Amino acid sequence: MASITKLAENYVLEHPSIKDCLKNGLINYSSLSRLIASELGLSPKKNFDAILIACRRLKRKLKKENIFEKKITSILKESRIEIKNKMIAVVLEKDIYFESLAALAKEIKKRKEVFGVIEGASGTTIITTEDFLDLIRKYFRSRVILENKSLAQITIKSPKEIETTPGTYAYICSLLADNNINIVETLSCWTDSIVLIKESDVEKAIGLLRF
Question: What's the CATH number for 78-209?
Answer without folding.
Answer: 3.30.2130.10
